[in-house]
Amino acid sequence: MVLTFPFVAMKVDSFENIVTWRWDNVLYMGVGCFFISWLWRYLLQRKEFSKSDTTGKKNLIQQTWKDRLFSDPKVFCPVLIAAFCIASVFPFIFSPYQTTIMTTALIYVVLGLGLNIVVGLAGLLDLGYVAFYAVGAYSYALFNYYYGFGFWAILPVGAVLAGLCGVILGVPVLRLRGDYLAIVTLGFGEIIRLVLENWDDVTFGPQGIPNIPKPNFFGLEMDFQTVTLYMYFVVFAMTIFTIVVVRRLNNSRIGRAWIALREDEIACQAMGIDTTKTKLTAFGLGACWAGMMGVFFAAKNSFVNPHSFTFIQSAMILCIVVLGGMGSIIGAILAALILILLPEYLRAFSEYRMLIFGGIMIIMMVFRPEGLISNVRRKYELHEGEKH
Amino acid sequence: MQTILDVKQLTMDFGGLRAIDHVDLDIKQGEIVALIGPNGAGKTTFFNCITGIYKPTGGDVFIAPPDEKPKRINGKKPNQITVAGLARTFQNIRLFANMTVLENVMIGQHCRTHTGILGSIFKGKGVRAEERRVIDYSHMLLKKVGLDQYAHYLAKNLPYANQRRLEIARALATDPFLLLLDEPAAGMNPQETLELDQFITQIREEENVSILLIEHDMRLVMSISDRIFVVDYGKKIAQGTPAEIQNNENVIKAYLGEDIDDA
Amino acid sequence: MDYFLELFLGGLTRGSIYALIALGYTMVYGVLGLINFAHGEVYMIGAFVGLIVSGFLTVLGWPILAIVVIATMMAMLFAGAYGFTIEKVAYQPLRHAPRLSPLISAIGMSIFLQNYVLLAQSSDFQAFPQLVPEFEFLEPYSHIILSTELVIILAAVVTLIALFLLIKFTKIGKAMRAISQDRQMAMLLGVNVDNVISATFIIGSALAGLGGILVASHVGQINFYIGFIAGIKAFTAAVLGGIGSIPGAALGGLILGWTESFATGYVSSDYEDVFAFGLLVFILVFRPAGILGKVSSEKV
Question: In CATH, what class is A68-367?
């Protein structure tokens, strides 16, 4: 790490502009880099130290406070209820602006949970997840534009369409593994975006489709503030719906098959699980959440264009999954909230926020690669007396 | 007694290399049969051909589950073969490391249960009853292999010998009529091997399965096998009861080298 | 015929660039088995360093040849240094982490570098000086091939051959191949794995830097975002040819370059990228290891 330092400092020198010399910038950067690299090395050392310290006394079952928090219903239920209460009164306490941000964050919670099925549970690295989001958004935009369908009618349609796309993508990539799978899904995501961008006759190309109606509430006309509120609660309900469904899937026969697939594909097949079918269900079920949220996204912004569906979005959702901890539902929720809210509240640093954001991603991975919260497997208890 | 597995002239080529060369093998109901041979003789490849992980180049594999007609299974996928009633363990343990011990066994029941996507989401009465049944059955199997108290440990945290036991329990959970064990004693100490001996016999009695095993530990093989097949360089060189094999010249040659007669 | 030739050479130029960048991906993948997502940013930084150095020297009034040489050297040097730093910061601490973690930290690194350049150099497109002089002997063919294109193609060919020799015959090349076969074993045999990995990053990044300055002088303008698309395309090329294989990267780059060039020339320029990715998906589905890649099967 000592070797890094001269280069970290040297980075600075390359970026004075030719016309105006900016020596002051160089000075700031030099000092900053020195400080950061010092801190970096210190933390790395500490990490190494703690690693060697704990390996000796690692128990077979680690019962930490976190495990207790998530597995013991006595602790977990109040936390859940508290979270629910805070979430439901949130828009009444904070401004519509805050509510809008929170709505966006909740969209990403659902997206994160959806991708969590594909990446976290089934272990299929999908870098083109945003394509399904786009499918959802455009299906609402187009169906509405050409045929005048409403939000609630298209919501399931968008989800099903995206799910179908997931299965269709799944078929050719069944044989691919790991990185190849990643790059094909990435390619697929880009193809969808480029088609949307260039198929001017139908999708209006890069200009996008404006004036998409918001969902109606029994035909009531609403002013701006009420609409924001209403949208918030719609997405909030969808989030809860998603959490319940994903949680149930996670602990079901299907969910176990996904995890087995992630852990060891060959053993999984040898245990009589049809890996083809399992992969396709994972792709399909993962994609349909993106489709659902796509429909909502189109309605929320009342505008869609291809620029909302770039690779960076896919990367963002993937980050949510990995930051949260693969396969962990609570982790994904937390990570989504952090990743979306953090840049918003970092607006104070305005132009530096994406820089900081990138930095945080690196730091998180270096110091906690298993994510915020690792997936805790459910304990199935034996019911005495029911044995056969 | 009924023949439940009948392998005829099985051949497997990798490029120009013939790993298995026209091997015949049969197992009758309730038998424990061992497949032995020096390292690299093609034993594991033989397993992989039977269980569908490799597609054999030539020959036929027939199975006949009890009270059913024989059917040809080569060319089928591993999962279909498992559904048909052949279950296996792996030489290099392949557990689902980050799932609990209990869940590993529950996976084995996957192909015997039918809950679908909608069922999992709505969790109806039938689904819950099925879950219950799977959980209880898995607990019972764990108790049988002596891992009950570890049910909620992650599989990767088990000691080595117990991981091997768990693999067997997982295979048993698929409800097979023939169990294929690939070097179950590898890496075990003498005490553990001795326990394994009793364990395998016990499984045959209680679960009513036949067993085909690959093993290097000759003491174990000789004590539990009803019949033994010996392969070397992909060819079958001998078959018979343990006593016959022990005195077979070809076998001694294969294991100790050609020069034995001159010495 | 001229049109065909123009497209052919255009494709060759593009392909050469993709190949140059793809080499970095392939080398890193070969040694570490991971996708260096920040590689495209290194390319972008190479272009910027080239811009700054050449601009600076032009102000000082140096002769054009010296500017070209020094700017190229500096671009490669800085790109190499950045590659080295990226590896130390974002990858080395994660050597034993789950497989997805380095990927995420790479994406983080990519975002970080993009915004870093954005802040330091603003988001506008910046004009890049014409570094390569017009060759007089090419005058009659100027409608088919530009002198920059010729330089790019030549540079790519020379680099490829040099790299091939390096991997095949030098000590470090042997060490790289050993590590890609079995890292643990190489370590036991006394190969300093960290040093070799660093060297791989430095070489790969220097090539990307070279690619950066070449493209920049060809296209004539750069901004902070050019690395992303170039990175994805080059990665496509690497996978196309069979990731981990150096001739594969070259071949993949060329095929991708020609596909794009002919598809835009004869079909439609709107769908340029669709063709590129379509080709990728098509090849991977039918030959998952890429054109020259080895098909690896897992031992059971």
Answer: mainly alpha
